[in-house]
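Appendix C reproduces, verbatim, an entry submitted by the partner laboratory led by Prof. M.T., so that reviewers can inspect both the input and the predicted structure.
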Amino acid sequence: MGVLEGKRAVVTGATRGIGRAIAELFVREGAKVSVCARGEDGLIEARTRFAAHAMACDLAVAEQVRAYIDAAAEALGGIDILINNASAFGSADTEEGWAASLAVDVMGSVRASLAAIPHLRAAGGGAIVHITSIAGIRPSARGPAYGAAKAALIHYAQSQAVNLAKDGIRVNTVAPGSIEFPGGRWEKRRLAGDPLYERIRAAIPFGRLGTAEEVAEVVLFLVSPAARWVTGQSIAVDGGQMLT
């Protein structure tokens, strides 16, 4: 029996990369999972391979987020776990970069939380995990808008943790470092021979980039009974990248 047997989990932005690895691991551990994404192609595969429920949703649109969370709760029979994973990757220090990061990374997570919390309360408690980034913990020269949005999300999670403890809801964040997965940005840089890839790889003490599965395993711990006394924390999953 898996550690999430009988649990009902919602994972946003879960048709590829870290979100998909989280959703697939949850399913293997016994949970029923709902996922959302903007692209229908990935959702079709998710429904076939691992998701009990999958629905298109633009997290920048409040009405769509509320409709998705309510539909997921109905399909799963409730919600015990919410994983806010989606990101617009609005890195540039421009109006467009800031708008994208705030609309999806911050407000998308806020909207999903506000919609899901009544369902978590109805379930008698549960867990929320926001996927942030080490860019939200230290200065981000390449992505100031992205880093600032992730920093805001870390602060929001701490406030949530205080406010929701009385409801039996724990809230934590996971901050990945540079993670490589099929079709992701770092794989594309490696295949293109981008020198930045090698500079980042060489700066990580373990000599490689992380995997989506390694992030998913930490998220699994945080939503499992093993972390029942952990809330308001931010855990870096970066192979020591921030240490150098």
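Residues 11 and 23 are 7 Å apart (CA to CA). Additional entries are available on request from the coordinating office.
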